[in-house]
Amino acid sequence: MNQDYIKPDNWSIIEEGFDLERVKSSESLFSIGNGAMGQRANFEEFYSGNTFQGSYIAGIYYPDKTKVGWWKNGYPEYFAKVLNAPVWIGILIEINGETLDIAACKLTNFRRELNMKEGWYNRSFSATLNKGIEIDVNVRRFLSLDLDELGVIKYEITPKNNDATIVFKPYLDAGVHNEDANWEEKFWEPLETQHKNNEAFVVARTFKTHFEVATYMHNSIFINNENQNAEPTFVDTTSDKVVFTYEQLVSKGQNVAFQKLGGYTVSMNHAAAELIPAAQKVIQQGLALGYDTLLQNQIDAWAKIWEMSDITIDGDVKAQQGIRFNIFQLNQTYLGKDSRLNIGPKGFTGEKYGGSTYWDTEAYCIPFYMATKDQQVARNLLAYRYNQLDKAIENAEKLGFKNGAALYPMVTMNGEECHNEWEITFEEIHRNGAIAFAVFNYYRFTGDYSYIPEKGLEVLIGIARFWHQRATFSTYRNQYVILGVTGPNEYENNVNNNFYTNYIAKWCIDYTIEQIEKVKQEYASDFVRIMSKVKLEPTEILHWKKVADHMYFPYSEEHDVYLQQDGFLDKELVKVHDLDKSQRPINQKWSWDRILRSPYIKQADTLQGFYFFEDHFTREQLEKHFDFYEPFTVHESSLSPCVHSIQAANLGRMEQAYTFYLRTSRLDLDDYNKEVEEGLHITSMAGTWMSIVEGFGGMRVKNDTLHFEPRIPKDWNGYSFKINFRNQILKVAVHQNETNFTLEGETAISVFVNGKEVLVEPNSLVTV
């Protein structure tokens, strides 16, 4: 049974009632972020129960020494950790001399709300402390989108049955640690503390990477909305911590509000000597605006995001809540402002996977950002990989590749490979293909070819060189093979001729050759510059072409399907529905050896190729492969349900498509994989968006034109989404019996609906 405590709501994530056992899950689900920093929903006050403390800053990491039993040549020296950042949210509270700890007092009316429409997190409860004082508490927290170095907390307490002496002890603490540290090392070195009046600063530096961060706070106290102009009565400092003490007598029924501004200024954006002055400037900006204006600006900023990215669903509250939760978390994680940043699988909600960049960005996230933002956001994600091309070449050189062959890392923060599992690091090389596919996908959707001659072609050439060198000519088959790989299905390691890997390798080479010729014909000066830089000769291209034209793909005549890898049919082919439910999830119940020998598929593998290259295969081929592979798929990767939902919809199997959609959209809300306390699955959330737009909406780009094959689950009254296609915004509203199109733009566009061309004029409604 999956968890089921989140209340259905169109715009909010709501928890009612306090349960010690679900605190860490809720810390993940109620996380907040603004693209520059983020936090798990930890309590501000002291909490004696089980918790996973987590605050994170975009781009700040530490190279934690890889922990392995023995060393192998070429093995990554470190695993990049997204660091648990110094704490700024903390506010210890004493009431009549007793510490407020909700794990140790009588609690009623506990409620959390993450308001996705307006971008804030609220927590409220009533408590009776051991000495008998009764209080009502309401806490609101948000991270400003406009001032992305600023966070805001308003912590309100109302004594109900007596006057109370309330002591607030706000603090900053750089003495933090990571849950996933390999060697229990400390990652932060304290440098300096400062405080004056109601402001405090702790400056700390990461070991090894030497990022410097100023963590800051400013505190104010209001009683019944009147500023008390309070000053701290005591200040306690250590090398890495500052604690202020404020004491306030509050009458029965009075509301005391402790307002705390805090956050980070970082050396990625400021000179190290200017970190504290920069923080002081942010504080002054926050104070000048005031709490109410800061909150209204937050609401307005989120309204602007939702205006473009919202998906509405009429008639299914859980489905509506799920898609908005996914869209909300994607926007909290990455807003496209900084090309140095990328989208970690856990975003700002946890530490698993190192929080670094995976192939998820290119395969799943770029379509979402292309369609819901300005195209520059997606271009920044492509530029991120171009800027790390030299490192990708170094990664390949460490493994014996040469001549500018590029192997992009499975996991990275700065372009270096930093993943610590051999079978993934060296064998899951299909990630190279996703990066090339993103270049193709960007041009297909935006029509902006300029990226390829400016930057993209160099990336494509490096990747093509890798595939050429990684393939081996088999005299037995008289074809080229790719040996010793792990495909997208990580439940098979060190296999030969993974279909998806071989197919995308061939495609990468063919596509690169096409782009070389196009740039040669149409961008002559760029062509000369690039060829001079990469030293590419026509004879080398001929060698590539030979590999692509003679690539081997394993195939079963008996089943009339491409095989996931050479040995797939050697397995005991027991389907998932015949597997005892007590054995699920297998990644938590079985040994790794047993998993590797099983036929079970973690996520779309062969079907990932059918998703990327849909036009290369007939619908009948898709159906045959879907029917063969899906019954063996356990969907224990967050990236799995979305691809299967899209393909089930494409096959007209709407009940199955809807089931997969619910799983992908509510993967974390309902904790399907029983691991949400470790953090959310951010990158797969983009796949949820694709499940509706590409799955139910059937959106494709063919020959520079949008095509739709709209479908709708039987219990929905309708759904709608917007697409920013080549700087014009098209709204699509699908109902049971019709589809409506409206265009926000200046030039009419043609779209195809179920194969029929339809002209959509600006600011007019077209019904099909």
TrEMBL record:
Pfam families: Glyco_hydro_65C, Glyco_hydro_65m, Glyco_hydro_65N
Residues in the signal sequence: none
Superkingdom of the source species: Bacteria
Annotated ranges, domain Glycoside hydrolase family 65 C-terminal: 699-759
Sorted UniProt keywords: Hydrolase
Domain Glycoside hydrolase family 65 N-terminal, chain residue ranges per copy: 14-267
Ranges for domain Glycoside hydrolase family 65 central catalytic: 324-690
InterPro entries: 6-hairpin_glycosidase_sf, 6hp_glycosidase-like_sf, Gal_mutarotase_sf_dom, GH65_N, Glyco_hydro_65_C, Glyco_hydro_65_M, Glyco_hydro_65_N, Malt_Pase/Glycosyl_Hdrlase
Gene Ontology MF: a single term: hydrolase activity
Claim: Iron is one of the keywords in the record: no
Cross-referenced NCBIfam families: PRK13807.1 (NF010380)
Family: Belongs to the glycosyl hydrolase 65 family.
Record's protein name: Glycoside hydrolase family 65 protein
